[in-house]
């Protein structure tokens, strides 16, 4: 009998310990995670009992809450919604939340641990609960210039502009876009109808092409990574020369590589690395990549951020630069084709790192969090992300990029800004053929920074379906994204 009592006592005691542990985990360890879970309807309902904080651009609210007479008490409003949608995302009680509305939900809803004393103080004062506001790093002129440049010709694409020395994101644009307000009403039926319409839109307006989506082949803008890897490893310098055929048969392959011009890289029997960057030639870059260990370029890409998890604080889809299996793959990957894929943010990080003497700063979209009584609750401090290359290597690559803008044969020359030293690189990526054998339109790029002697802005522009047969295999590859990039840089430098 005593054995049975001891067994029951120990069992009950053990169950009590497990219960205590489970309650502790739920109330303390997992509290924030459970509260942030999009399936937690209690959190969603509670969030409508308070006035949600604003999302600010240069102090101006672009997302804010206004009172209503219904059960939700407030409704979310968006100013210039389609311009800032890739930044704000949407906040909806039937479709969840995205963008900063999701990433900064605890601050905006006033439910974070850091706001405990603010909540307590407002309760004691009898003041209605209110969330904190989030000040972004966005430059409104740069953001509007990016969106206007993309939408002027109905481009599908994206723009990212960074401040090289701090990592501040000055512009984050994606088109086509949408108005988050259509998902933020207090009418569930209307929200669901609007969401289904947006979701079925073949233009995928809710996809943030600047930091996510299916990613893009970077094409020739990836040559900056190859050049950085070679110079940093001591395998080349801008004046290093390579064989200059019009065609290159890839090793152990039936594939033949050509330059975009379908001719040699310049008129000589040799072409330098600088010529290859300035004129965006494929063959010298492929020869350079094949002369190195096949891991060197992917390793340099990773040092710049490829393959790494990143939050700005919106989660960013990692760019991809796999290790090639053989020399043929090494050659194709070196010109940003094969399995290499990137976000515009990643391409901008490469240019920003080159501009910032080899140091890549961690990109960030939030500058500060401000309490309802206008106290700064938290302030973002610039943080180093990586240092992939030396100051000397960065200077060498920057010099070649600048020549791509200020020399007659440079493909990026239309990025030139009078009185400003500009560095730039164009890119064109082929996307294969469709099921019926027709050539798919190209993806075209521009990346660069300015001023070269004191960088204030680094930019990356991608335009999907912007080059190829419809553009006579030229022009679109150089002019369209370069013009967009120039407008964004001018917007930043005009202040």
TrEMBL record:
Pfam families in the record: PBP_dimer_2, Transpeptidase
Domain Penicillin-binding protein transpeptidase, first and last residues per copy: 157-472
Penicillin binding protein A dimerisation domain location: 52-134
GO biological processes: cell wall organization
Superkingdom, taxonomy of origin: Bacteria
GO MF annotations, alphabetized: penicillin binding; peptidoglycan L,D-transpeptidase activity
InterPro entries in UniProt: Beta-lactam/transpept (IPR050515), Beta-lactam/transpept-like (IPR012338), PBP_dimer_sf (IPR036138), PBPA_dimer (IPR054120), PCN-bd_Tpept (IPR001460)
GO cellular component term, pick one: plasma membrane
Name the UniProt record assigns to this protein: Penicillin-binding protein
């Amino acid at each position: 009998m005593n054995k049975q009592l001891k067994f029951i006592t120990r069992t009950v005691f053990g169950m009590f310990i497990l219960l205590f542990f489970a309650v502790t985990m739920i109330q303390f360890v997992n509290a924030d995670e459970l509260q942030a879970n999009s399936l937690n309807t209690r959190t969603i309902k509670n969030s409508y009992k308070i006035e949600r904080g604003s999302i600010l651009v240069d102090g101006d609210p672009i997302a804010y809450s206004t009172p209503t007479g219904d059960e939700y008490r407030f409704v979310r409003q968006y100013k210039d919604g389609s311009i800032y949608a890739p930044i704000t995302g949407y906040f909806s009680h039937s479709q969840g939340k995205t963008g900063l509305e999701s990433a900064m939900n605890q601050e905006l809803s006033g439910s974070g641990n850091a706001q405990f004393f603010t909540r307590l103080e407002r309760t004691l004062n009898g003041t209605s609960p209110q969330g904190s506001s989030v000040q972004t790093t966005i430059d409104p002129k740069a953001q509007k210039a990016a969106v206007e440049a993309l939408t002027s010709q109905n481009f599908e694409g994206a723009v990212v502009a960074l401040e090289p020395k701090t990592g501040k994101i000055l512009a984050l644009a994606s088109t086509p876009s949408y108005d988050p307000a259509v998902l933020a009403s207090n009418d569930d039926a209307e929200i669901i109808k609007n969401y289904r319409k947006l979701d079925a839109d073949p233009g995928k307006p809710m996809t943030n092409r600047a930091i996510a989506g299916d990613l893009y082949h970077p094409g020739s803008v990836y040559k900056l990574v190859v050049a950085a890897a070679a110079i940093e490893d001591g395998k080349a310098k801008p004046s290093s020369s390579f064989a200059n055929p019009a065609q290159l048969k890839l090793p152990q392959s039936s594939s033949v590589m050509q330059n975009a011009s379908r001719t040699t890289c310049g008129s000589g029997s040799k072409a330098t690395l600088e010529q290859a960057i300035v004129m965006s030639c494929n063959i010298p870059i492929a020869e350079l990549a094949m002369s190195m260990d096949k891991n060197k370029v992917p390793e340099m890409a990773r040092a710049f951020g490829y393959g790494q998890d990143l939050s700005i604080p919106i989660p960013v889809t990692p760019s991809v630069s796999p290790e090639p299996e053989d020399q043929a793959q090494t050659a194709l990957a070196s010109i940003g084709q094969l399995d290499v894929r990137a976000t515009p943010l990643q391409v901008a990080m490469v240019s920003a790192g080159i501009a910032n003497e080899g140091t890549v700063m961690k990109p960030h979209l939030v500058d500060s969090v401000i309490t309802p009584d206008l106290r700064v609750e938290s302030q973002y401090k610039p943080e180093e992300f990586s240092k992939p290359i030396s100051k000397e290597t960065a200077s060498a690559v920057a010099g070649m990029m600048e020549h791509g803008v200020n020399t007659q044969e440079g493909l990026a020359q239309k990025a030139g800004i009078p009185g400003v030293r500009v560095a730039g690189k164009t890119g064109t990526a082929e996307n294969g053929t469709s099921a019926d054998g027709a050539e798919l339109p190209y993806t075209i790029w521009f990346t660069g920074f300015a001023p070269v002697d004191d960088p204030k802005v680094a930019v990356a522009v991608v335009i999907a379906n912007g080059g190829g047969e419809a553009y006579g295999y030229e022009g679109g590859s150089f002019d369209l994204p370069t013009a967009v990039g120039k407008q964004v840089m001018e917007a930043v430098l005009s202040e």
